[in-house]
Amino acid sequence: MDVCEIVIHRLVMPLQMRFETSFGVQTDRDVILLEVRTQDGYVGWGESVAARSPLYNEETTDTVEAILRKELIPLALNTKWAHPSEFFKKTLFLHGNRMAKFALEGALWDIWAQQQGLPLAQAIGGTKSKVDVGVSIGIKPIPELLQEIEDYYGQGYRRIKIKIRPGWDTEPVAAVRQKFPHVPLMVDANAAYDENHFPTLLELDKYGLMMIEQPLADNAWEEYANLQSQLETPLCLDESIHTLEDALRAIHMKACRIINVKLGRVGGIQAALELTKVAKEAGIQLWCGGMLETGVGRALNIAIATLDGFTLPGDTAASARYWNPDIILPEVTVTDGQITVPPSPGLGYSVNIDQIARYQEAQWHFRA
Ligand code: OSB
Ligand code: MG
């Protein structure tokens, strides 16, 4: 793989819905798409899943752009890549900045899968032809919440996730459970609680939730182990898991039973493949999380969710929930709670340059 040109596309895309979590409100995405070109004419695409401000984690679209410009793009242009798995090791000397790394690494995997003539899902060892999906619904007044759940559950989504925060937890959960006693339901707190809230978190145990995602701070390992030991409901870690070492620590400490894998948060596909192996051996269930991705990030999520370690529905909902229009063709659609994995080589969707132009704020070319 001889990378000869990389283009940074910087876009602002208005979201079709207002998305409120414990850390803030999102109404658009400030996003970087990376276009990577090789000497022999292949084009691969990657996406930075970082947000405008460091609210979910410490990276932002601006830090991703800076690290791409200064470190990762020069390195990618000056290396002969035999296989995309090399990227993870060759960039380990650069601390953190995993979302920046994944933006570039994802594009290398897309190219490599195209060169093999394989859908990315198959190229990374995925076995499924369809993936199960759920939907993540933001904080909103209870009547709207109930209406949305009715709509999405009616459309076939296989799991409903609602966002909670201190003061907004048992009340919405009880309301949802009263109206939908059998809906597969879970909650995500995005790290908003601490030890003082244990009574409330323990109260959630009685609602038959599939899991409670990231109730505590990302490094609250002892507290997670303590909480999980008192709960029947599985805990799921999202923000806590940055590396394979974090996953090993979670397993060793019995801090959770489920891990939400986000490719950007763990630094890419190679890192996710290694984590999947370890989690599977330890009996930890996995599912693919979401970061309100465009179609490019969505295609990468679909591919990783085809691994057989991914046993629970993910957060990759249909394109139309987020964008009008999305920047890929065809758009991602969900039928009966499943996405059919595209059969064509690489990401399996074509990137629509005309739609990118509609959202684009700037683009910069870098050549070897
Ligand atoms: O915690 O899973 C999360 C979105 C942005 C940041 C963090 C999270 C989320 C979601 C939305 O829950 C998932 C999606 O629909 O892409
Ligand atoms: Mg989460």
TrEMBL record:
Q: Does the keyword Nucleotide-binding apply?
A: no
Q: Do you know which Pfam families this protein is assigned to?
A: MR_MLE_C (PF13378), MR_MLE_N (PF02746)
Q: What is its EC number?
A: 4.2.1.113
Enumerate the spans annotated as Mandelate racemase/muconate lactonizing enzyme C-terminal domain.
142-234
Recall the GO molecular function terms of this protein's record. O-succinylbenzoate synthase activity
Looking up InterPro entries in the UniProt record yields: Enolase-like_C_sf (IPR036849), Enolase-like_N (IPR029017), Enolase_C-like (IPR029065), Mandelate_racemase_C (IPR013342), Mandelate_racemase_N_dom (IPR013341), OSBS/NAAAR (IPR010197)
Enzyme class at the top of the EC tree:
lyase
Identify which cofactors the protein needs according to its UniProt entry.
a divalent metal cation
Q: Could you tell me the keywords of this UniProt record?
A: Lyase, Magnesium, Metal-binding
Alphabetical list of SUPFAM superfamilies matching this protein:
Enolase C-terminal domain-like, Enolase N-terminal domain-like
Kindly provide the name given to this protein in its UniProt entry.
o-succinylbenzoate synthase
